Amino acid sequence: MVRRYFALIALLFTSSWCIIAQNSQSIDSLLCEIYDKDQSIRIKLQRALVSANVDSIILYNSEIEAIDNENQKTVFRILDDDKWNTELSQKAYDAIF
Hints:
Distance between the termini: 50 Å
Order of helices and strands: HHH
Number of domains: 1
Oligomer: single chain
Strand content: under 5%
Number of strands: 0
């Protein structure tokens, strides 16, 4: 009986740890996507600035504003829900800060 009890506790602990790891992994992936999207549009803007293409500069600036607003909402939701931890990659942290 005692062995079953400890086996059950071990199973529950392992299961909850796996769920936490999966949650961290999905948050990490989401934050990495945010980082990639953020950097991608900024690279496009830099190229437009170098080429002095005014129409592209205006377009990319508005896209940056929209992407920044969307990203901020997502990051704030993650921070408010306390769903992030130290298990995130550097890229995910870069997305937050």
